[in-house]
């Protein structure tokens, strides 16, 4: 708490830098640009111009998530403490997910659920539908408690012995700053990673579900 109070007395830019340093290293480059676009003058976020968003659209991946591979990720983790809902179609997100999966081999405390999978079921995940979990990171504790945003990352990292990475985000004003930084990233992550807007992703998913209603093996 004393550390948080000392940090609170420093300039805003200094506090923002500390918040960014508390995030995973592979997010710093991308997220720092997005953070600058929101808080620093004369800055433009990636893939944006002064006339509004400029989307870099690419076709939705035709590769389906292998349910066998996902089951293998969770083998031996029946006594999980937290469930991570992640977007398997997000290349930047998967860097962190893969790191946590590797780390989890020695703990077995995280259960991984790919929301991009055709097998994703809201009923099995506290009623969290696809649109909701695509909007921001969600994790579910073993007692059914749902946590989001930076708290979700902190809980996940704590589950595999890396709690120190996000420890500072427990305290204000760092908690608010970190959530703000993550919120900007979550808002723009699809266009940053070259994917269509969320509305188009959801529509494509619904169309696929209709096409494959009677054929689970079909693909777009």
TrEMBL record:
<dbReference type="Pfam" id="PF04134">
    <property type="entry name" value="DCC1-like"/>
</dbReference>
<dbReference type="InterPro" id="IPR036249">
    <property type="entry name" value="Thioredoxin-like_sf"/>
</dbReference>
<dbReference type="InterPro" id="IPR007263">
    <property type="entry name" value="DCC1-like"/>
</dbReference>
<protein>
    <submittedName>
        <fullName>Uncharacterized protein At5g50100, chloroplastic isoform X1</fullName>
    </submittedName>
</protein>
<dbReference type="GO" id="GO:0015035">
    <property type="term" value="F:protein-disulfide reductase activity"/>
</dbReference>
<dbReference type="GO" id="GO:0005739">
    <property type="term" value="C:mitochondrion"/>
</dbReference>
<dbReference type="InterPro" id="IPR044691">
    <property type="entry name" value="DCC1_Trx"/>
</dbReference>
């Amino acid at each position: 708490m004393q550390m948080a109070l000392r940090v609170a007395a420093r300039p805003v830019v200094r506090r923002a830098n500390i918040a960014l340093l508390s995030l995973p290293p592979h997010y710093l480059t991308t997220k720092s640009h997005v953070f600058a676009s929101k808080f620093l003058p004369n800055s433009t976020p990636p893939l944006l111009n002064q006339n509004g968003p400029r989307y870099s659209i690419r076709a939705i991946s035709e590769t389906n998530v292998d349910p066998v591979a996902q089951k293998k990720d969770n083998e031996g983790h029946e006594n999980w403490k937290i469930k991570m809902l992640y977007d398997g179609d997000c290349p930047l997100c998967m860097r962190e997910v893969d790191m946590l999966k590797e780390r989890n081999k020695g703990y077995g405390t995280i259960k991984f659920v790919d929301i991009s999978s055709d097998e994703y079921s809201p009923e099995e995940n506290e009623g969290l539908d696809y649109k909701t979990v695509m909007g921001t990171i969600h994790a579910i504790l073993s007692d059914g408690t749902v946590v989001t945003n930076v708290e979700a990352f902190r809980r996940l990292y704590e589950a595999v012995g890396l709690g120190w990475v996000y420890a500072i985000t427990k305290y204000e004003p760092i908690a608010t700053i970190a959530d703000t930084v993550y919120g900007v990233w979550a808002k723009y992550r699809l266009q940053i990673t070259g994917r269509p807007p969320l509305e188009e992703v959801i529509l494509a998913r619904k169309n696929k579900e209709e096409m494959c209603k009677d054929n689970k093996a079909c693909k777009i």
